[in-house]
Design goal:
CATH superfamily of chain A: ACP-like
Helix content of chain B: 10-25%
CATH class of chain A: Mainly Alpha
Strand content of chain A: under 5%
Number of helices of chain B: 3
Strand content of chain B: 25-35%
Order of helices and strands of chain B: EHHEEEEEHEEEE
Strand order of the largest sheet of chain B: 1-5-4-3-2
CATH architecture of chain A: Orthogonal Bundle
Structural class of chain A: mainly alpha
Largest sheet of chain B: 5 strands, antiparallel
Number of strands of chain A: 0
CATH topology of chain A: Non-ribosomal Peptide Synthetase Peptidyl Carrier Protein, Chain A
Number of domains of chain B: 1
Helix content of chain A: 40-55%
Radius of gyration of chain A: 12 Å
Shape of chain B: globular
Oligomer: heterodimer
């Protein structure tokens, strides 16, 4: 039976994906769905594509270019991952 | 790096966009997967004077610089790298992307790109440098090259983060970038 991941579970896994690209790990402790990857977590824009690729591997999904462009906040990342997992948001 | 003023400056809103990539933070084993995510079919193949890895990151740098340039007149613009198409790349690393001219520099350690439409001077530190140092250097250069007319300039960020040098009623567009060991900026000069 396929396991359904709720938004909280996706968020916890997403933290592991983001970890290597965030210098100040304390920033990860207080993230929420409105947290912006660049403005709040200080992710370098050159790493945004790395994060998309790592998320694809983590969740065994494929993220197309249009969807990747939406992944600017934690909430929008979760939206895209849920959509690609075929789960209702 | 520094450039002379271009002779074909256009009288529209002066813009500037600058991007810098620390190549030590890029992974050649991931280049193909990265390229598939942000490069446009029209950008293939890589020109013979660059490796695929260099070309991939040069295209990224061009797209970022053009995005920053465009944000000045289009606040809230979403970065869509696959939709910014790099064309006409020359061996001297000049190109056009999204209707904006760009010039890049490639070294063993980094790639930097300036996107522009007007007279400008650009400089890169090539050394580790924190943001405050960078802001101070940009302010010192704001009056023009070779003179210290920059007194009183300070860096101001718009609500969307777009930076400018401000002194009284004067405003000069500036663009900053940092990645890994390097930081740099480009600014529009009078």
């Amino acid at each position: 039976m396929e396991m359904i991941m709720d938004r909280h579970a996706i968020l916890e896994e997403l933290k592991k994906v983001l970890g290597p690209y965030i210098k100040n790990k304390e920033l990860l402790q207080n993230i929420n769905e409105t947290t912006n990857l660049i403005a709040d977590l200080r992710v370098n824009s050159a790493n945004l594509v790395d994060i998309v690729i790592d998320a694809e591997a983590k969740y065994n999904i494929e993220i197309d270019v249009d969807s990747a462009e939406k992944m600017t906040t934690i909430g929008s990342c979760i939206d895209v991952i849920q959509e690609k997992l075929g789960q209702p948001s | 790096m520094s450039y002379k003023r271009s002779s074909d400056s256009r009288p529209d809103v002066p813009g500037i966009g600058y991007d810098l990539v620390d190549l030590s933070l890029t992974d050649p084993s991931r280049t193909e997967r990265l390229a598939a995510k942000f490069m446009n079919a029209a950008e293939w193949p890589a020109p013979g004077f660059l490796s695929f890895h260099q070309y991939c990151w040069l295209c990224w740098s061009v797209k970022e610089a053009v995005y920053k340039y465009s944000c000045r007149t289009q606040p809230g613009l979403v970065f869509s790298p696959a939709k910014i198409v790099v064309t006409g790349l020359t061996a001297s690393l000049e190109a056009t992307a999204g209707g904006v001219r760009t010039r890049s520099r490639l070294s063993e350690d980094f790639i930097e790109t300036v996107a522009f439409n007007s007279a400008f001077l650009a400089e890169v530190t090539g050394e580790p440098c924190d943001g405050r140092d960078l802001h101070a250097r940009a302010a010192a250069l704001a009056g023009g090259p070779g003179e210290f007319a920059g007194d009183g300039w300070c860096v101001s960020h718009r609500e969307d983060g777009c930076p400018s040098l401000i002194r009284g009623t004067e405003t000069r567009p500036v663009s900053f970038s940092h990645h890994g060991r390097f930081a740099g900026f480009a600014l529009v000069l009078p």
